[in-house]
Design a protein that fits this description.
The protein is of the alpha/beta class and 318 residues long. 45% of the residues lie in helices and 15% in strands. The longest helix is centred in the N-terminal third of the chain and has 27 residues.
Length: 318
């Protein structure tokens, strides 16, 4: 019995020590220099937004991150479009990154409502080319439907769609992802992720240095993980809200950029937004992963999608 108890006790002590170290790391983590600014959106809440590049007659590039994502996710793409002389904005949804939490449920209606208030308070009037990654594919259709006069085009980056979510495999994925997200929120609360911030897990994207540090901080943040999980819990509700908004206007230029290989039965649904557009464009990057597609290594493909949408819009509105 002693031979069994000793190694068990050693494992328990090691786990407790790991948790203690993680908790200390989270509690003592220093503040990073803030990029962008905090904007008061009313109701005692502030949201974080990073707008770069000069305003001009060209559309503003507006970035919407995926699940567990925030403004830092777009740093590589944002710096590339700003280098072209464009004005581009990325932000943190409620409770994520530096933004204050918002009321629940954190479904698409809540997310889009917050974004509308943030853009108004930040005096960002558009028109916008809205670029969404992953779960943001559920937010783009609703934002576009509620603000049709501000839409210059849409770019879906390895994004979910309401139609995919309605399939059997889509529903199964949403349920499994919700369970995993709740575990992630618990793990962050316990301090399990803090010792891993410096590993590849902290930044799977391959972001520029400042954004990478922000991503690693969020990776271990209990608050960030809690509210990100709250969004994932509303996946199916958000999909239903996006579907109810109706089809995209076929006059809007649309680009769909994907990573790796998609299953044949889902391929048609993944690329459907581009096929439904009169100025649709699609590109697949087999070497990229879901995360690295928006990092420094492969984000040129995303920029090409943005360029297509911008050029198509310019031709239709000379």
């Amino acid at each position: 019995m002693r031979r069994i108890l000793k190694p068990v006790a050693a494992v328990i002590l090691a786990v407790l020590a790991y948790i203690a170290v993680g908790g200390v790391m989270v509690a003592t983590a220093g503040a990073l220099p803030m990029r962008g600014e905090m904007i008061d959106i009313g109701g005692g809440r502030r949201m974080h937004i990073i707008c770069e590049g000069p305003k001009s007659a060209a559309p503003t590039i507006l970035f919407e991150a995926g699940a567990f994502g925030f403004s830092a996710d777009w740093a590589a793409v944002q710096q590339k479009v700003v280098a072209q002389g464009l004005h581009a904005c990325a932000y943190d949804r409620a409770g994520l990154g530096l933004s204050d939490p918002g009321p629940e449920p954190r479904d698409a209606n809540a997310v889009v409502g917050d974004l509308e208030r943030l853009l108004k308070a930040a005096h960002e009037d558009g028109p916008f080319i809205v670029v969404g990654h992953s779960m943001a594919g559920l937010y783009l259709p609703l934002f576009a439907a509620r603000n049709p006069d501000k839409i210059a085009g849409l770019v879906f980056v390895d994004a979910a769609t309401p139609e995919i979510s309605e399939t059997a495999s889509g529903r199964q994925f949403a349920q499994a992802f919700a369970r995993a997200s709740r575990l992630a929120a618990w793990g962050a609360q316990m301090g399990l992720f803090a010792p891993l911030q410096g590993t590849w897990l902290g930044d799977k994207y391959g972001l520029p240095p400042a954004a990478s540090a922000e991503k690693r901080r969020a990776f271990a943040s209990p608050v960030h993980n809690h509210w990100a999980s709250a969004e994932v819990d509303q996946w199916m509700a958000s999909a239903a809200e996006a579907k109810a908004a109706g089809p995209l206007n076929p006059a809007w230029p649309v680009a769909v950029i994907t990573a790796g290989k998609h299953r044949a039965d889902l391929g048609g649904l993944v690329y459907a937004p581009a096929r439904a557009s009169r100025a649709g464009y699609s590109e697949n990057v087999p070497a990229a992963t879901h995360q690295t597609l928006v990092g420094l290594a492969y984000s040129d493909a995303v920029v090409r999608g943005i360029d297509h949408v911008r050029d198509a819009g310019a031709k239709s509105n000379p």
